[in-house]
UniProtKB/TrEMBL annotation:
It holds the Pfam family UDPG_MGDP_dh_C. It comes from Desulfosarcina widdelii. Gene3D superfamilies: Cytochrome c1, transmembrane anchor, C-terminal, NAD(P)-binding Rossmann-like Domain. This is UDP-glucose 6-dehydrogenase. Residues 332-433 form the UDP-glucose/GDP-mannose dehydrogenase C-terminal domain. The active site is at residue 279. It comes from the Bacteria.
Length: 449
């Protein structure tokens, strides 16, 4: 198929490149000329494992980028809207989605062939039917369902694993206004012969995306609340508590061979310093706002956000337990991105932790394998950026692990060689407490040291 993807951010570029890898001809569209030029040079504007390689492999043959949306629509059979939907504190901002729909509609005005427009952006239920479709109809002068198709196809891509997730999907959700649109969308994913495909209406497809992310965020905040309780309960360690919970066969089934199957969802039932990124915080807040607009209190999800907002404070509290004042204390911050294998710092727990430490006079030496440049945009010269893990640890009085990078598994050996050993605060519970002389961890009770 011939496809145009409007928006070359995280979702748009990954989708476009992967669709090209599947054999489709893809035109990526963006208003940012510099970004378009960068893509056409084979240089991805975002960091994502495996993306550069696939971009360079397909560039010039099955993949191109342009600022000319009208040409892209005229030369393709299906257009995906993959623009941003930021949350302004009250509701998601649909202005970019509406603008993209209007521009596509304007192009459809002079196109005679049937064309399908698919919303890939994460939007609240009703957006495709009540915002995108009217914008397309008004701009084109045509009728959805008769002259062109409209659909909704949410993405389920994990940052850091987005390429693998797209190429090996666990589910494909297709929402559409009619059977013809559904049929065209199914053609798009024909290469995935074993994937589970759910065909539904657009409102349900939109709700599935929000519900999926809100469930995972809820599991994280639940685990963190239990961890905070364990911290105050004496000889109780949340890592051991959750290990016992995970052994429930409804969470970790026992196979016919007697071996335990450990599903990935158990990684969300672990205590840490909070979730971040471009999806969970924004999507949960947007769903709360949507529910409240319909008269639902959304009390549970309100609590999920509150717990997550407060969770980075656990790192500060553990530091203050060991230092009367943080003024002048040298703290190595390990991990700046909200999760490993990405440079995305949006809503990262590292942000409030670093801001608080700087305000209280601590000297920060931060290290992240890939997020250094993003961190500089946020903190400027307020902190020092280490080139290596060893540089970050040098002369540190305390170490705080905020991202679960595999590179930090070397920490026990490095710290054991230091005299005196710094205090290690494990915000992700990724290391063994027995490997350190001085260790504090999220959810670890006082007498479980």
């Amino acid at each position: 198929m011939k496809i145009s993807v409007v928006g070359t951010g995280y979702v748009g570029l990954v989708s476009g490149v992967c669709l090209a890898e599947l054999g489709h001809t893809v035109i990526c569209v963006d208003v940012d000329t510099a970004k378009v030029d960068q893509i056409n040079r084979g240089d991805s504007p975002i960091y994502e494992q495996g993306l550069d390689e696939l971009l360079q492999k397909n560039l010039g043959t099955r993949l191109t980028a342009t600022t000319d949306l009208e040409r892209a629509v005229h030369e393709t059979e299906l257009s995906m809207i993959a623009v941003g939907t930021p949350f302004d504190g009250r509701a998601i901002d649909l202005s970019f989605v509406r603008q993209a729909a209007e521009m596509i509609g304007d192009a459809l005005k002079t196109k005679s062939a049937y064309h399908v427009v698919v919303v890939k952006s994460t939007v609240i239920p009703g957006t495709t039917d009540s915002v995108v479709t009217p914008a397309l109809e008004n701009a084109s002068g045509k009728k959805a369902g008769a002259d062109f198709g409209v659909g909704m196809n949410p993405e389920f891509l994990r940052e850091g694993d987005a390429v693998a997730d797209f190429m090996r999907p666990d589910r494909i959700v297709l929402g559409a206004c009619d059977s013809r649109s559904h049929g065209v969308m199914r053609q798009l994913y024909e290469p995935f012969t074993s994937a589970n495909i759910l065909s539904t209406n657009s409102r349900t497809a939109e709700m599935i995306k929000y519900t999926a992310n809100s469930l995972l965020a809820t599991l994280i905040s639940f685990s963190n609340e239990i961890g905070n309780l364990c911290k105050k309960s004496g000889e109780v360690d949340v890592a051991e508590v959750m290990k016992g919970v995970h052994l429930d066969k409804r969470l970790s089934p026992i196979g016919e061979n007697g071996r335990r199957i450990v599903p990935a969802i158990t990684t969300f039932i672990e205590a840490g310093c909070g979730f971040g990124g471009s999806c969970f915080p924004k999507d949960v807040k947007a769903l709360i706002a949507y529910g409240q607009s319909l008269g639902e209190s959304m009390s549970l999800l309100d609590a999920v956000i509150r717990i997550n907002r407060e969770q980075p404070g656990q790192i500060i509290a553990m530091l203050k337990k060991h230092f009367h004042s943080l003024q002048g204390v040298s703290v190595a911050i390990l991990g700046l991105a909200f999760k490993p294998e990405t440079d995305d710092m949006r809503e990262s727990p590292a942000i409030p932790v670093i801001h608080t430490l700087v305000e209280q006079g601590a000297r920060i030496h931060a290290f992240d394998p890939v997020a250094r440049n993003e961190a500089k945009k946020l903190f400027g010269d307020a902190i020092t950026y280490a080139e290596t893990l060893e540089d970050a640890l040098a002369d540190s009085s305390a170490v705080a692990i905020l991202t679960r990078w595999d590179a930090f598994k070397r920490l026990p050996r490095l710290v054991q060689a230091m005299h005196p050993q710094p205090l290690v605060i494990d915000g992700r519970r990724m290391l063994d407490k027995k490997d350190f002389d001085r260790y504090e961890g999220i959810g670890m009770g006082e007498r479980s040291l």
